[in-house]
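User: I'm new to structure prediction. If I give you an amino acid sequence, what do you actually give back? Let's try with this one:
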Amino acid sequence: MYNYLNNKLLKRIWDKNFKNKLQSIPVPYTLSPQKNMISHPNQRVGVFIDTQNMYYSARNVFARKVNFGNIVKEAVGDRKLIRAIAYVVRTKSEDEKPFLDALQSLGIETREKELMQYESGQKKADWDVGLTIDIVRMLDMLDVVVLVSGDGDFTALVDYAKNRGRIVEVMSFRETTSAKLVEAADHYINMSENGKKFLIGPVRRGPMNPPKGGEILVERGKEMEVDEGIKGIEGSEVDEGNVVDEEFWKW
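Assistant: Good question. You get back a string of structure tokens that encode the predicted 3D arrangement of the chain. For your 251 residues, that looks like this:
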């Protein structure tokens, strides 16, 4: 009887003095829903945005613009942002300046590369190598790499960063994303599931569906034609072919 009363008394003291206090203490980390990845406030995050990939994905699938500010907010969460970088192209006419100013006002750094124009009228800019080099170079200062792209060419980069002990998260529109890239990531965020957060502007012509089989959209002059390119599987990316059309900076 003594032991029973003693245990009961201890339980009352515990409930009164400690139980409620423990429940009020914030948990220092949360579990990511994919692959049980741990997220906590002390993680150092780098966000790397494939601007052209995002532009063409949003345009071809939703006929909308991308909310880059909300992308960075979602990527970082309650963690520590070290760098947020968008990879863009620079033109002689400087039509891109308002767009670049808008990114910088959101706290997003820009890496700029000159737009190359060929005799055929085609315009191209390729940032894949530059983005890859930046991530490799910054790995020592980051715990988490957030890649904002659906380009399957980055799968090897994701694997490399993971082998270096980093958490790699990918954000993109699933309709234009490589299935291999999604599988390689520690955590994947499908931005198509929350268009109100990641898309802005009125629907201008759409909604549009991406080409079947991962065809490459190529602009020649004023015509937009479908060039049979990389044959993909369900959920494969739509590769914009590093092409910049006349509307790129006007959205």
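You can read the tokens as a compact description of the fold. Here is one thing that stands out. The chain has a mean pLDDT of 75.
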